Amino acid sequence: MQGHLTYTIHIERDEHGLYVVSVAALPGCFTQCRTFDEAMAMAQDAIAGFVATLVARGKSVPIERSAESPFSMSVAAPLRSHDAPAAS
Questions:
Q1: What torsion do the CA atoms of 75, 28, 53, 62 make, to the nearest 10 degrees?
Q2: Continuous segment of H or E residues that includes residue 55
Q3: Residues 59, 2: contact at Cβ < 8 Å?
Q4: Residue 64 has what pLDDT?
Q5: How many structural domains does the chain have?
Q6: Which residues of the chain fall below pLDDT 70?
Q7: Does residue 63 fall inside a structural domain?
Q8: 14 in a domain, yes or no?
Q9: 88 is a domain residue
Q10: Helices H, strands E: what count in the chain?
Q11: What is the pLDDT of residue 19?
Q12: Could you tell me which residues come within 8 angstroms of residue 10 by beta carbon, excluding any fewer than 6 positions away?
């Protein structure tokens, strides 16, 4: 039986500039690559492979119940001194 599953992914850049993708609902499922487009494609491959491995091993597949898909982005922008976040 084939179905479609949806998972929230978390994408961040590491200290080497690589995109690192993780899937909180699938602990241990992650990938990394050089471009954002590669990260999106590799995330799909990583999730599909992870789920296929769970099924092949007779394990249950976690189902993410959240209908939300949070996606946040940080950008570099010039700030005036009174715009800068307070030091913690």
A1: -80
A2: helix 36-56
A3: no
A4: 85
A5: 1
A6: 1, 66-88
A7: no
A8: yes
A9: no
A10: 1, 3
A11: 95
A12: 21, 22, 23, 24
Q: Please name the residue that has the structure tokens 């500039």.
A: 17
Tokens for 57? Answer: 């091993």
- pLDDT reported for residue 65: 77
The pLDDT, as a whole number, for residue 79 is: 64
Measured distance CA(23)–CA(11) in Å, rounded: 9
Q: Which long-range contacts (CB under 8 A, 24 or more apart) does 70-79 make?
A: 70/8
Token digits of residue 34:
């050089």
Q: Which pLDDT value is given to residue 3?
A: 76
Residues, the chain = 88
Q: Which residue carries 């690192």 as its tokens?
A: 20
Within a domain: 68: no
Q: Which amino acid is at 75?
A: V
Residue 68 one-letter amino acid: E
Q: Which domain holds residue 29?
A: 10-56
